[in-house]
Prior knowledge:
Layout (H helix, E strand, L loop, with lengths): L1 H4 L6 H4 L6 H7 L7 E3 H11 L2 E5 L2 H6 L2 H8 L9 E3 H10 L11 E11 L8 E9 L4
Amino acid sequence: MIESSGCAEPLKPYREIPGRTPGEKCETIGIVPGKLMPLSELRQIQEQCKITVFLFFDERIARHSTMQSDIDNYSLLPPKARPYLELHQFYRVIEEEGLELIDGESVSAEILTVGELECPSCGGIRFDPYIRALLLSDE
Length: 139
């Protein structure tokens, strides 16, 4: 029934990952809270497994709020004004601003949490997986 709605099909790669919960599925592919991961690996996981990666720049917000509350609180702001960006938006901003990542392998983020968010356009029949990560500074 969900398959015929068209809302679930984009998640096929994610659903094929072994595990029952988002945490189990992410652990299967090497995503666990506390782990440091290169942005290039997170980008590959996002593209192949269809898991949205939210990259945070503000450590306090990243560690002490929920993804749903952040979306509720910041969704009306332009993306560049938010304390986070989806990973694909981050790379788009880097490109638009003419910036370069010196080495995608050396820029890492700490995995904070994994979970699912209700798809806002699917009427509650689909929950989309996400990874919440904190971009680490050189300081």
